[in-house]
Amino acid sequence: MSGQETRPNHTIYINNLNEKIKKDELKKSLYAIFSQFGQILDILVSRNLKMRGQAFVIFKEVSSATNALRSMQGFPFYDKPMRIQYAKSDSDIIAKMKGTYVERDRKKEKRKVKAPEPSVNKKVSAPQAANAVPLNVSGMPMMNQAPRMMQMPGQPPYMPPLGMMPPPGMGPGQMPPSSLGPGQMMPGQMPPPAQPVPENPPNHILFLTNLPEETNELMLSMLFNQFPGFKEVRLVPGRHDIAFVEFDNEVQAGAARDALQGFKITQSNAMKISFAKK
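^ thats the sequence. predicted structure below, dont judge the formating
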């Protein structure tokens, strides 16, 4: 069944994967090659014998899944060409985002078995219910108490009442400087501009920095071998955060550099690429 026969979906189903690869390494490698197409919400790989050699990659956008399917169909992944198609139905995480999530029938059946039968003696007449005093449940305010204001994430800081003077050196709505941790910014404050990567003369060898700890040679090879002229990846012993990638010539190296500059192997590590010093 080809990917085009199933309607487009946020989730792509991949099979014909190398069954000898460990689950954690497989998930990291799948993330490394598919995150270039868009935000990935989850990658599902099962240890079940029946599900070996298979995986699901869930994208936030359907367009990302479509681009991934078209671009990576037949891609040699751990020496085996990937077979990719759209998943037949929405994954749970997407269904919850759409508001169409329905619990599995097995869970419903278990709930039906466990649900106790309503007792006739426990029914409360309408007059009794009207005069009932609300119970003070632990952790919950009484119904006749005024609700308390709670600070919600994303809301502006508390504003002092009209006429109240803010502390010295602070304007209304400001946060005390001492409450800001390292790297934190005031609401609405723009982050400082990123420092540009120092430019060296063009070279057929690229220098990679800011790589995550789990980076390995195979992961980088799969990332760069999609570009013409790729030759090899060289890691530096004792340093997980840097590597060198060699191409046939400077033009091919420059094309790969421009395409993958800032590529995130993980959510917190944006790869920095420059020409190696000659």
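Helices lie at 23-34, 62-72, 92-98, 105-114, 126-131, 217-224, 250-260.
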